[in-house]
Amino acid sequence: MSWAFLRDLLSGVNKYSTGIGRIWIAVVFMFRLLVYVAAAENIWKHEHDEFECNIKQPGCENVCFDHFFPVSHIRLWALQLIMVSTPSLLVVFHVAYRENREKHHNQKLYRNPGNIDGGLLCTYLISLILKTGLEIVFLVLFYKLYNGFKVPRLVKCDIKPCPNTVDCYISKPTEKMIFLYFLVATSCLCIVLNLSELSYLIFKYSIKCYLKRHMKKQQ
């Protein structure tokens, strides 16, 4: 799978981000996207083929694998990466709208179309809220689908067409669990960064509005 589009998106958003936002982009790019492409994808590459049960009943391994892994960890991780990066498009589109508006009116309407103020500030805050919400949703989804953030070595399955309770073994469980913990840790770090940036922007522009009102009262 090509991740060039996500890399280009993050590079484009970087121009309009605050300092905390740039840290978030670096974390997503270096500790999530690169780790996914360079290592994690290969670990789960043959997870279905390497899932073994101690019985050769036709169909038994397939239904047991589907029961314990309704969605592959790695595919859910890929979906999470795409979804949490998508809200950043709102900022890019808003800046593009400002630039096109200036071209249409053939005059300078903004000091800098990429400055986070006015309507762009609202768009930026909405994108932060969406990113934080999506991160939390995916963490809850991971937890609910797999009964916690762990990869067991052995699972017991008694789903038809298995004739009785059979033991099924997951390949490389320790390695997969390490990457799963890494996924959870980076997700939590991104949530903290998003909330920090959200608080910073709200505080900054609240102080700015307060000072403007204070100056008007003095005048």
Model description:
- With 219 residues, this protein is mainly alpha-helical.
- The chain has a single domain (14-218), classed as Gap junction channel protein cysteine-rich domain (de novo design (two linked rop proteins)).
- The protein contains 7 helices and 3 strands.
- It has a 3-stranded antiparallel β-sheet, covered by helices on one side.
- The mean pLDDT is 82.
- Its main location: other.
- Belongs to the connexin family.
| Overall SS class | mainly alpha
User: How much strand content do the residues show?
Assistant: under 5%
What fraction, in percent, of the residue positions are helical?
55-70%
- Give the beta-strand count: 3
Number of domains: 1
Mean pLDDT, rounded to whole units? 82
CATH topology: de novo design (two linked rop proteins)
Superfamily at the CATH H level?
Gap junction channel protein cysteine-rich domain
Cross-sheet strand order for the largest sheet? 1-3-2
Query: N-to-C SSE series?
Result: HHEHHHHEEH
CA-based gyration radius: 23 Å
> In the CATH hierarchy, what is the class?
Mainly Alpha
- Assembly state of the chains shown: single chain
GO biological process, one term: cell-cell signaling
Family: Belongs to the connexin family.
Subcellular location: Cell junction, Gap junction; Cell membrane
Keywords: Cell junction, Cell membrane, Gap junction, Membrane, Transmembrane, Transmembrane helix
